[in-house]
């Protein structure tokens, strides 16, 4: 019988949910890592039993990467928290914004604030800094988005271990094709609308919010920018705007369907200080043709919704009938098991939801 595991990271701890393949009835445990900010989480299905990882931050002890091999019953952390800058770097990790499984069995990638990318080859116990990216000549000019300067996207190539795509707010998209020996910006065509006219397409400095792709089509990337939704069909060498038909081009998450590489989901928000959906109606927008056309989905979602959905608070599972999950800053998580046609809540009244990750376990 297949089990579904759902990790919900919040501003005040982590909740772990379980259901069967139907995903109708759920049971949750938590708070785990009570009163710690959990900005990233990972269900690592390469292990048996599966390993849960969480990027947690304590106001007293700082950030750490925690791991559990018993679905949250107990938690351990790596050496000195598992992720620390070398002394010569003159920096300290403030938050762990991203945890992603790599191509090799025990490789885990992390993205942090301040902007750095890290690699672990021991399942998340210890992490090594990607030095060439930290030393990149652009780094002193990277700014900070509203949430801070962070590598929030790390996309290891699904078949080429030497290729990794990352994104930072604000700095844009960078990519290595030589296993981290060098990194190049990949922002051609992405507009930085906050810059003066005539300077809005710089080599770097864009406020990218999230990048996603499907493993069966790694050359195609989808990107939610500070203003605009984009697609690249050449592995990030160039980007094309695909926001036509959306009610707003601002937003944070972008998610690709688990089995359909042309199906992509976004959650549009008003820009500026009004970071809630247009007209206060919670809607997931779906495209089945790689962003050429869009349609809204709101059945089961609230029409009076005055909060946001942050960049890692939307995800998909890998069931044959793939589920899609949306977590909001009002502490509610919804699931759809019919390609975002209808929604139902699975948990409510949690603290601000910062991230959700789900997986189907045999």
UniProtKB/TrEMBL annotation:
<dbReference type="GO" id="GO:0010411">
    <property type="term" value="P:xyloglucan metabolic process"/>
</dbReference>
<dbReference type="InterPro" id="IPR052025">
    <property type="entry name" value="Xyloglucanase_GH74"/>
</dbReference>
<dbReference type="InterPro" id="IPR015943">
    <property type="entry name" value="WD40/YVTN_repeat-like_dom_sf"/>
</dbReference>
<protein>
    <submittedName>
        <fullName>Exo-alpha-sialidase</fullName>
    </submittedName>
</protein>
């Amino acid at each position: 019988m297949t089990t579904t595991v759902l990790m919900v990271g919040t501003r005040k701890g982590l909740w772990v949910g379980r259901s069967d393949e139907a995903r109708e009835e759920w049971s949750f445990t938590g708070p785990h890592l009570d009163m710690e900010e959990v900005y990233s989480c990972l269900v690592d299905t390469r292990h048996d039993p599966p390993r849960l990882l969480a990027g947690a931050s304590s106001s007293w002890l700082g950030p750490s990467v925690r791991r559990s091999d018993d679905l949250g019953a107990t938690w351990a952390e790596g050496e000195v928290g598992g992720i620390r800058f070398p002394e010569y770097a003159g920096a300290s990790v403030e938050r762990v914004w991203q945890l992603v499984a790599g191509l090799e069995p025990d490789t885990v990638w992390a993205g942090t604030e301040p902007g750095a990318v890290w690699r672990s080859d021991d399942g998340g116990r210890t992490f090594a800094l990607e030095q060439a990216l930290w030393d990149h000549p652009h780094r002193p000019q990277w700014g900070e988005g509203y949430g801070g300067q962070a590598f929030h996207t790390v996309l290891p190539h699904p078949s080429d271990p030497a290729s990794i795509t990352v994104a930072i707010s604000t700095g844009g998209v960078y990519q290595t094709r030589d296993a981290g020996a060098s990194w190049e910006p990949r922002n051609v065509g992405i507009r930085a609308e906050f810059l003066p006219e005539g300077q809005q397409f710089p080599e770097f400095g864009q406020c990218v919010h999230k990048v996603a792709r499907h493993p069966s089509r790694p050359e195609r990337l989808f990107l939610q920018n500070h203003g605009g939704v984009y697609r690249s069909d050449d592995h990030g060498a160039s980007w094309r705007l695909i926001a036509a038909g959306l009610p707003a081009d601002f937003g944070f998450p972008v998610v690709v369907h688990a089995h359909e590489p042309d199906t992509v989901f976004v959650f549009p928000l008003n820009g500026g200080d009004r970071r809630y959906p247009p007209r206060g109606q919670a809607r997931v927008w779906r495209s089945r043709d790689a962003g050429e056309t869009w349609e809204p989905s709101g059945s089961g979602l609230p029409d009076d919704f005055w909060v946001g959905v942050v960049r890692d608070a939307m995800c998909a599972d890998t069931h044959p009938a793939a589920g899609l999950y949306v977590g909001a800053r009002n502490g509610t998580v919804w699931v759809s098991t019919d390609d975002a046609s209808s929604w139902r809540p699975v948990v409510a009244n949690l603290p601000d939801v910062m991230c959700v990750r789900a997986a189907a376990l045999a």
